Amino acid sequence: MIFGSCLMFFDRLARVGAFMFFICFTYVELLDKCNYLNHYYFVSLVALLLVLIPTRSDRPLVPLFMKWAFQGLLALVYFYAGLAKLNTDWLVDALPLSIWLPQHSSIPVIGPLLAERWIAYAFSWAGAAFDLLAPFALFSNKLRPWFYPILVVFHVLTWVLFPIGIFPWVMILSTTVFFHDDWHHSLWNRLGLPLARISATEVAFNARFGWQFVVVGALFIFQVIFPWRHLFYPGNLFWHETGYRFGWRVMLMEKSGMATFFLQEESGVERIFELDTILTPNQVKMTATQPDLLRQVARKIAATNEGEERIRAEVWVSMNGRRSQMYVDPFEDLSAPVSSWAPRTYVLPMDSVIRPAEWDRMRENVRNERGW
Q1: Over the range 235-247, which residues count as b (16 or more CB within 10 Å of their CB) and which as e?
Q2: What is the dihedral of CA 43, 49, 51, 55, to 10 degrees?
Q3: pTM score, two decimals?
Q4: Which of 47, 87, 182, 326 shows the greatest Cβ crowding within 10 Å of its Cβ?
Q5: What pLDDT score was predicted for residue 356?
Q6: Which residues contact 341 (CB under 8 A, 6 or more apart)?
Q7: Residues 334, 338, 343, 348: what is their CA dihedral angle, to the nearest 10 degrees?
């Protein structure tokens, strides 16, 4: 990955380096679903665009759609992130910011303010407005000079308050692609690395970029449509998470849970399976709140414990400060094969009425009936 990054500094090897970086970064990203983050996905997409689009300095002119490809992707990330914030938890209850911000009350100067409830509301509404307005402001020559300093402050503040890694710096630097050509020429001139210029009479579309136009256009259309797949599934998206990933939904919920897996032998006797024997601590944490991971872990347990009849789990989850509640059907055999595109009917509706004490009684009744 590092070697591919270094190759991108060299004109004739830039696309080879971008390809190496894209393959390596995406491979590492996909190794563990528990590590998924929107901004890792974004970096992979930008690397893919650098493979498709020439960046050599001896080509001072490229078709306009190539610049629009990067601008369009950035605009999409912001706008979809803003749309995702238009929900009751974020706007009406200021969740999860009202949970997260008070944890930083010890920060000098602004710390005491972060403990105030109204600050959580101000941040929630300002965050939604920022994301929704960002594409329009960045494309506007009049608004961009005023909006960009706000963008820098916004991302630096999120970097200080939340553990989101490189994402703020990636966005701060990437959005300079919206700046006028003269700004870039001036920057590189000051660095002593002047860019080549081209006269207006030489402007023309080169037909050999036609296949790239088709590929980049298809990629962008996919990015516009794919995040909406969750509309085909009933229930609360943030609860069952079907279609949640790859949709540019950023920092929208605080979910915590606890999962206990049970293996039932042919005799009907059950025993608890300790997850830390096959999972890392982070995987144990993430599995408890994500239904597809629960099934994936169950299949892993079944593969390492041949002869077991069924595998079920008792999972309790709390989302955005709500009371903890049973998350999945406790009698569902989670190791049974199910299409990843199918509705997650084994996930109980949010705000179901089963409480821990009630479940203890229900479980005992079922065990007595089935002779477990």
Answers
A1: bebbbbbbbbbeb
A2: -110
A3: 0.89
A4: 47
A5: 56
A6: none
A7: -10
Kindly state whether residues 190 and 334 are assigned to the same domain.
no
Percent of the chain whose pLDDT exceeds 70: 88
pLDDT bucket at 158, cuts 50 / 70 / 90: very high
Q: Same structural domain for residues 216 and 147?
A: yes
Structure tokens at 76: 């999409």
Buried b (16+ CB within 10 A) or exposed e, 262-277: bbbeeeeebeebebee
Query: Could you give the count of Cα atoms lying within 13 Å of 173 in the half-sphere of its Cβ?
Result: 7
pLDDT in tens, 293-307: 999 999 999 888 776
Instruction: Quote the domain boundaries for residue 273.
Output: 254-370
Distance in angstroms (rounded) separating the CA atoms of residues 44 and 21: 9
| Other beta carbons within 10 Å of 283 | 18
What pLDDT digit, counting tens, does each position of 220-236 carry? 999 999 999 999 999 99
pLDDT of residue 179: 94
Q: What is the mean pLDDT of residues 266-293?
A: 90
What's the CA gap between 297 and 339, in Å, rounded?
Answer: 15
Q: Do 218 and 290 belong to one domain?
A: no
Burial of 313 (0-12, 13-18, 19+ CB in 10 A): buried
When comparing pLDDT for 166 and 82, which is higher? 82
| Of 254, 296, 259, the residue nearest 276 (C-alpha) | 259
pLDDT bucket at 365, cuts 50 / 70 / 90 = low
How many Å apart are CA 201 and CA 181, to the nearest integer?
17
